[in-house]
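Hey, resending since the last one bounced:
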Amino acid sequence: GGCVVVVFTLLYGSMRYNGAGVNIIAAAVEQGQALPWDWIVKILLTALTLSSGFKGGEVVPSFFVGATFGCVAAPLLGIPAGWRSPGLAGVFCGASNCVVASLVLAIELFGAQGLWYFAIVCGITYALSGYAGLYHSQLFLTDKLEPEYRIFVATTIIKTDNRSPQQGGSL
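The structure tokens again:
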């Protein structure tokens, strides 16, 4: 696995996808600059690195993928340049299954003016991400798509006569 990453790096002629890529994350979020294939190449190289037994990172690669995917997908979806940052928060939320931490991180990095966008994206990615994530010891105490507490509305049925509805009576 590590040899494949080295060969890819040599063939590509750049170390763009090696390491944390903080400069690429910053360029994607601040200037809206990312190559269309940045996010998929980082996913593939990180998966290859982790599957071959190396410690390739968990959190920062998700920032890289989210920032570059958000940068590339935003113009296709008609999202203004200033609102490309929800991609970073969404990918992190989907990978970590931590909605509150993702929202706090997004607000800390990008400001509270985008809270509704961050909340919508994080909510969708959390719901769709399933029960697997970065941390294998993470436990889910409730079902993600079912409310923990259900509210039942009590109804009173008053019979107007002694016959049951099956016998032709009315309720």
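The radius of gyration is 24 Å.

Sorry for the duplicate.
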